[in-house]
Amino acid sequence: xxxxxILGLQWGDEGKGKIVDYLAASYDVxxxxxxxxxxxxxxxxxxxxxxxxxxxxxxxxxxxxxxxxNGVVADPITLAEEIRKLEEAGVDFKGRxxxxxxxxxxxxxxxxxxAASERAKGKAKxxxxxxxxxxxxxxxxxxxxxxxxxxxxxxxxxxxxxLKEKHLSLLAIYPDIxxxxxxxxxxxxxxxxxxxxLELVDGExxxxxxxREGKRILAEGAQGSMLDIDFGTYPFVTSSNTxxxxxxxGLGVAPDKIGEVIGISKAYCTRVGSGPFPTEQDNELxxxxxxxxxxxxxxxxxxxxxxxxxxxxxxYTIMLNGVTQLAITKIDVLxxxxxIQVATAxxxxxxxxxxxxxxxxxxxxxxxxxxxxGWRQSLEGITDYQGIPLAAREYLRALEAYLGVPITxxxxxxxxxxxxxxxxxxxxx
Length: 429
Ligand code: GDP
Ligand code: IMO
Ligand code: MG
Known about the structure:
The protein is of the alpha/beta class and 429 residues long. Helix content is 30%, strand content 21%. A hairpin with a 2-residue loop joins strand 3 (41-45) and strand 4 (48-52). Helix 3 packs across helix 4. The longest helix is centred in the middle third of the chain and has 17 residues, at 181-197. The radius of gyration is 21 Å and the shape is globular. Guanosine-5'-diphosphate binds at residues 8, 12-18, 40-42, 44, 294, 298, 329-330, 332-333, 411-414.
């Protein structure tokens, strides 16, 4: 068997949680391979809403295994809180929520450092979610980090103290900020008990054994490809590889095991935090998209920046990920627009190009737009592709033609049921 991948093609919040939750019914295992509690994946079904940060979005499907892979960075505090909410909702996750021993731990002082380093950047701040993601990955690559498996070792507390002390001396170079370290530390230590109660596994053996047994596995991305540490709008990015390549290192699977790659894009585009966004509409139009799309961060509640869909950007991330199918979400948000704009090229130094410039932060880009007619009607109750209004189908057809990848799913609302599935190469349930 191969491992299928679902990931965001823009700057995050494309609706990954919703699509993973829907498709999970066709899989045996859902695995997160990177990121951490900077993610906020929203799921809506049976009149309920859940936002997941570290737990994979297959957790509500009975019997399905959910693996938090080695590429993830986990904060015991937020994880314990998520688990508490699952218990409250009556979700039976015992034996179904697995955690890779090699996943790295976010310490309270990682969050402290995140906040202090952002403060020091002033106007140049990344707009981080302040969940400690950057400092934790820095310790991982700097070979100082603590891993989940370490919590079972006798000398864990000593390693914890050493790392904490190192962080405290580093903090001296940053401006003073308020951070209730003693309180956070106490919560953290208590939350380790919740972590110890989970099934800790050697994720790489687990996943390869599952593949050999013919299990159907779906890898769930966090963030979006434009936030990838190597290929995103650096330095306004996150600290992990959010692209398909991250599945191999974040779970321990070889590249030849990758199957379908489902790329998700909104029918328009958003970004939260600082950094370049060529098709941003920092005006009334953007505000309208934000209102109609409910564009406020699932993790931080911050208003998201909104703009039109950007085809050169999508072409780039489709190339990086080897996308085989596209899911277009939030098309319903465009229901009341007379005209929908699509960026089809960038004008840079008076020349048209469909490639992203090296320094997208410093380069002056004017997107060239093509206008499409809106459909001006609700999509409520439409369950098959042919039922989609002609103008909306023309819009989708134009995206497919430009991007050269088939659209297999169109999402028309936040609920699990509001999904038009044209053709998915997912395994049969
Ligand atoms: P993720 O991080 O990619 O999982 O996305 P988020 O959950 O952060 O943000 C997506 C938001 O859009 C959530 O509030 C979802 O409930 C909502 N959503 C997902 N798909 C649709 C859709 O097709 N239409 C509408 N109107 N909302 C959607
Ligand atoms: P999901 O999985 C949208 C953004 C932050 C900031 C930058 C770096 O819900 O799509 P970090 O906390 O990683 O140091 O922040 O990346 N960011 C996200 N934006 N969705 C996310 O996750 C994000 N995770 C991080 O806003 O600009
Ligand atoms: Mg999100």
